[in-house]
């Protein structure tokens, strides 16, 4: 549900909204901001950040893929083309000391069909298999899109192998591990959107969308409550049912995602969002 949509629909009833007590006070200058401090003086050094993208194409299993090196590095619109009518495969190396320990994001484009299923295999540095799963790639139009492949085995993986079946034509732009193991030591860094609450995160529902209770910077949004850490499950707080609203006498409380509205006594939102119904309570 959308708060904006709720406001438009309720407007047809002649709403008289009252400002909600629950207002977001998130500062874009603080939330999700990455600050790099320059160190000076003798003995000071800067450690390059770890790279969550593939460093190279592994010689272990490349089949019917054109320009496989295009899948190395961050997404840039240049793709490795899977053109195998009988199936194709590509193994990517995240690099020594840059093993993944969380979900994998696949960037892709140019599906020749409505959708396809790719087999994703996570492997250790010796190519032994940790686990295999499937990723559904959907044709969502022109441009580069992504799908998040869950991973919660707790074992660092260095290699990722993607395999497709019959008549699977698409372009692989990049892969990105959402949590780095830091050289295989475990306890990876917190990444907002990986479905695992860590660091300063208040919640993590496995996506970077605001408006669903857990914001794009993994903070609980006003009017919501979130539970769980693998991942977080967020739900709207019904101020009307809880009696925590501040509607004046003669008005009825109408709940909405993340907020509520106060309506005159003769206009109450119907459950099917079709218009006004008689109030059921004074």
Order of helices and strands: HEEEEEEEEEEEEHEEEE
> Biggest sheet, open or closed, and with what strands and sense?
5 strands, antiparallel
| Number of DSSP strand runs | 16
The CATH topology of the largest domain, please?
Jelly Rolls
> What class would the helix/strand composition place it in?
mainly beta
Output the CATH homologous superfamily of the largest domain: Galactose-binding domain-like
- CATH class call of the largest domain: Mainly Beta
Provide the gyration radius in Å: 24 Å
The oligomeric state is single chain
Percent in strands? 25-35%
- CATH architecture classification of the largest domain: Sandwich
* Helix coverage percent: under 10%
Shape: elongated
User: Order of strands across the widest beta sheet?
Assistant: 1-4-9-6-7
Spans of 5+ residues with little confidence (pLDDT < 50)?
Answer: 1-47, 183-189, 277-282
Overall residue-averaged pLDDT value: 74
Q: If helices are DSSP runs of H or I spanning 4 or more residues, what is the number of helices?
A: 2
Structurally, the number of domains stands at 3
Notes on the structure:
The protein has helices at residues 3-11, 239-242, and strands at 56-57, 65-66, 80-82, 88-93, 104-109, 115-123, 129-138, 145-149, 159-164, 170-177, 224-227, 233-236, 251-256, 259-264, 268-269, 276-277. By secondary structure, the protein is mainly β. The protein folds into three domains: 3-18 and 246-277, no CATH class; 56-177, Galactose-binding domain-like (Jelly Rolls, Sandwich), CATH 2.60.120.260; 190-237, no CATH class. The chain has a five-stranded antiparallel beta sheet with strand order 1-4-9-6-7, with no helix packed on it. A hairpin with a 5-residue loop joins strand 6 and strand 7.
């Amino acid at each position: 549900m959308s708060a904006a949509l709720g406001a438009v629909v309720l407007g047809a009833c002649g709403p008289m909204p009252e400002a909600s007590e629950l207002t977001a006070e998130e500062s874009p200058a603080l939330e999700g901001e990455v600050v790099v401090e320059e160190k000076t003086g003798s003995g000071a050094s800067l450690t390059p950040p770890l790279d969550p993208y593939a460093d190279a194409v592994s010689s272990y299993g490349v089949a019917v893929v054109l320009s496989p090196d295009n899948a190395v590095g961050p997404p840039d619109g240049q793709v490795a083309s899977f053109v195998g009518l009988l199936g194709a495969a590509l193994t990517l190396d995240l690099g020594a000391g840059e093993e993944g320990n969380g979900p994998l994001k696949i960037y892709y484009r140019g599906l020749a069909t409505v959708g396809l299923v790719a087999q994703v295999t996570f492997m250790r540095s010796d190519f032994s298999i940790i686990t295999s799963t499937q990723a559904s790639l959907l044709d969502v139009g022109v441009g580069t899109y992504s799908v998040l492949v869950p991973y919660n085995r707790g074992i660092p993986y260095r290699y990722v192998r993607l395999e497709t079946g019959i008549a699977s034509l698409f372009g692989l732009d990049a892969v990105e591990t959402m949590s780095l193991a830091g050289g295989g030591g475990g306890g990876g860094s917190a990444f907002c959107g990986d479905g695992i609450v860590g660091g300063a995160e208040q919640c993590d529902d496995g996506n970077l969308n605001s408006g669903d209770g857990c914001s794009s910077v993994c903070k609980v949004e006003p009017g919501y409550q979130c539970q769980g850490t693998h991942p977080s499950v967020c739900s709207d707080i019904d101020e009307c049912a809880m009696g925590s609203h501040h509607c004046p006498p003669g008005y009825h409380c109408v709940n909405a995602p993340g907020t509520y509205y106060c309506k005159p006594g003769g206009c109450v939102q119907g459950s099917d969002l079709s218009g006004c119904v008689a109030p059921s309570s004074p």
